[in-house]
What does this fold into?
Amino acid sequence: MLSPETLSRDRGAPSTDDLLRWDREHVWHAFTQMQEYEPLLIEAGQGATLFDTAGNAYLDGSASMWCNVHGHRHPRLDAALRAQLDQVAHTTNLGLSNPTTVALARRLVEVAPAGLEKVFFTGDGSSAIEAALKMAFQYWLQVKPAEPPRTTFIAIGEAYHGDTLGAIGVGGVDRFTAMFAPLTFAAIRIASPGGPCPHTGRPAPSLAAALDTLDRTLTEHGGTVAALVMEPLVQAAGGVLVHPPGFLRGARELTAKHGVLLILDEVAVGFGRTGTLFACEHEGVTPDILCLAKGLTAGYLPMAATLTTAAIWNAFLGSHAERRTFFHGHTYGGNPLAAAVALESLNIFRDERVLETLPPKIERLREHVARLGTLDHVGDVRQCGLVAGLDLVADKPTRRAYPWQEQRGTHACLAARRHGAILRQLGDTVVLMPPLCITLDEIDRLAAATEAGIRDATRQ
It folds into this structure.
């Protein structure tokens, strides 16, 4: 690999020092306190490894914010992107289409749970949720026979569905959403059965209690509720809260019983993350609306999709004069470059039998997570497929949390970099969510770097 200095000379680019300075001065990073920010510039990637501008290598333990699936620089994905560039880079999806996007829609329908036949393309996870919320709301206004307006949604405590205002309305992680409450609506919330919550310490209700609460909530509010919105199996950004088996199936049965739509947010957990292509497959559930993003393009380009049923689609059909159209869309929705990569990613899942390679990786990660759970300052661990959360605590026997101002989770992830891994924290929960392509040896190394980072950050 050429040195950064050589690359800069060859292409007349700014020096690494210039880039580091400009990063501090001009780039406003997401979920980052810029006064405390220390730049790290990632210049290249290969497989499950990233390289910074100084040539240092890091295992990508967060799958580049949970979206990279098959690794960086997968030759088939690179080739698919280049081939589409020879055709067209972008055409609008408003009133016309392109062959690649149409082919992707067909493939998504083929691999999605049976009954999801219509695909609405957007740009990211938040926009997939926004489309789902508006779709559900408008559906009840237009369904025949006519229903009274349904203007509320039920959501799960500690849920995260994105950062746009509608997504905040159904989100439940207060440190992300509370400030913006005056700008949006408030969902009806039920306690998460995954836990205990690492942020609040609130114990999780039992499966029976959680379903009973949902049943009573639907009985009380069912006539005004458009949909239940939830992440299936595991609430990722809420702290890797893993639901007990049967909760998803029970929620589907209760929403059907009360005549309420079910929206499943698989933005983080779709495309193999839990061991099946879609998390809802574990319990044989087909939602009314399914939201996809992140792994849809294997981490290459922004793209999201909101899938729904013919029954919902039919409520939007009519003459122009009836104004039943779904008045919602995004400039880059259905972008053919992103569609080309997404289509090839699905081909890789099929041709390389990706899902069949996951069980030994999931088991190896489980062994390491169990071992990391014995560390003096790890209070609780949770895992679902190739995603795990490790809660850092000040006192293990009592699970007493560190003062949030100490940022132990942040310090653990920064320390892990010095040991060769890039991780992402959720408060004081350290998250492991590597690309699906990671090898067993790389899982061992990732776990070792995680342990070293935790020991460094919790050393008194």
